[in-house]
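Sync notes, pocket subgroup
Present: LS, DG
LS reminded everyone that the earlier model was apo-only. Rerun requested with coenzyme A included. Inputs:
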Amino acid sequence: MRTTARLLLRPFRDDDLPAWAELNADPEVMRYLGDKSLSRAESDEIAAAVNRQYVAEGIGFLAIERRTDGAFLGAGGLTREPWHPDDLEIGWRLARVHWGHGYATEAAASWLAYAFTDLDLPRVLASTDTPNTKSVEVMKRIGMTFDHNAVLEADGETFDAVVYSITQEAWRGAVQDNV
Ligand SMILES: CC(C)(COP(=O)(O)OP(=O)(O)OC[C@H]1O[C@@H](n2cnc3c(N)ncnc32)[C@H](O)[C@@H]1OP(=O)(O)O)[C@@H](O)C(=O)NCCC(=O)NCCS
């Protein structure tokens, strides 16, 4: 669990599940996530798996809650992806009504700090479908830079992706510059 200026980053609760399912069924949200709307059962299973991973490993794609009113905004955090077994990735997914407020960047910056301080990781990666410019902008805002292009595979389908990265050294330098 982490707190930022505007957000609470925490495991999923049962009362998040309807809003989580709604965003996972939104074709605009899912456009670069396999372009398939998820069923309520699939959405619930992701939340359950996130909470299991958080208990087991202290990482995961946790819920994002707005502190002023308790609204569930979406989810984000550190995950282990099959295409990068030696590194953690950072990711984000918000309900469409909550785009455009800097929430994804604020949550991601906090999880990055966790990765480089508590977990002492040497680097963190992020990847997305090449045309997903909104996601790439989040990567850039948290200090990540282009690493390489890749063809990745998810659920049996391949897609063109961009991979961004940031090292602990670069992150510490950037944090220092902002003091
Ligand atoms: C990717 C995604 C999370 C980006 O959302 P986003 O709202 O653009 O990103 P942020 O939450 O960081 O918000 C940044 C925007 O808020 C604006 N903003 C407003 N108030 C702000 C504030 N207080 N602080 C920072 N930014 C602020 C920024 O200017 C920026 O706007 P712009 O896009 O017009 O430049 C969102 O598009 C999404 O959920 N997409 C679907 C799922 C997905 O594809 N996830 C990635 C898979 S790899």
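DG: The domain at 2-177 is CATH 3.40.630.30 (Aminopeptidase).
LS: The CA atoms of residues 75 and 93 lie 5 Å apart.
Action: DG to write up.
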